[in-house]
Amino acid sequence: VFTFQPNTFAALFDQEAEDYHVKGYDEQKKGNFDKALNYYSKSLSLGLETAPFYNDLGVLYEQLDLPDRAEEFYLKALKMNADYLPVYTNLAYLYQSRGDIQKTTDLLLERIRRAPENDPWKNYLTQEVYKLNPGLKAQFEREAKQREADKLKEQLAQKVREEFDLQIIRSEKHYQKGQQFLREKKYPEALEEMDRALTLTPKNPKILKIRDQILYESDIAEIK
């Protein structure tokens, strides 16, 4: 006796639903909108719920001159996956056809914000936003300059931190060498190394303390 587990049935239904989606999309590209809608309806009846499917269905309803239904499925696609970028553009242009410039602009800006740097649509959509709202161009340019300034500032700060770290390392080497000379009672050489260390890290209390010790021991040695 062979039995199917529930998840097996679910997988079969999902595959069949996606197959209908593919067939519908093929008919949609050919301009056979009625056939496409028939296949998409079968996908819906099998419970297909993906952002690309809802987006394609929205496009089809626009092609069938049913903008309200198109909007419904575009919004479902966004709810299903907010990172699915094509739906932002489609929904934006739907709102533009209704004269809702604010929603159009907001959606295109969100599409641009979520796009990767190498997205070929990014520059084109930015120009579209400028056409819709010319005042945004100056704002974007100011923001871009500020980002660049912040980036340069951070790079400079990082360079300063790296240089400071190197100075600490160099100072520590002089400090260790000075201690070695102190143990060997080579006071002039020890003092010279500590002064080099202080040049790199001024007012370092650890170095100042040893320097005072070197001077004290040097004075005692001279007295003796």
How would you describe this structure to a colleague?
- There is one protein chain.
- The protein is an all-alpha fold and 224 residues long.
- The protein is 83% helix and 0% strand.
- The protein has ten helices and no strands.
Distance between the termini: 106 Å
Computed structural class: mainly alpha
Topology order in helix (H) and strand (E) letters: HHHHHHHHHH
Low-pLDDT residue intervals, each spanning 5 or more residues? none
Mean pLDDT: 89
Sum this structure up briefly:
This protein has 224 residues and is mainly alpha-helical.
Features:
224 residues, mainly alpha
How are the secondary structure elements laid out?
Layout: H1 6-30, H2 33-45, H3 51-63, H4 67-80, H5 86-97, H6 101-114, H7 121-132, H8 135-183, H9 187-200, H10 205-223
Helix pairs in contact: 1-2, 2-3, 3-4, 3-5, 4-5, 5-6, 6-7, 8-9, 9-10
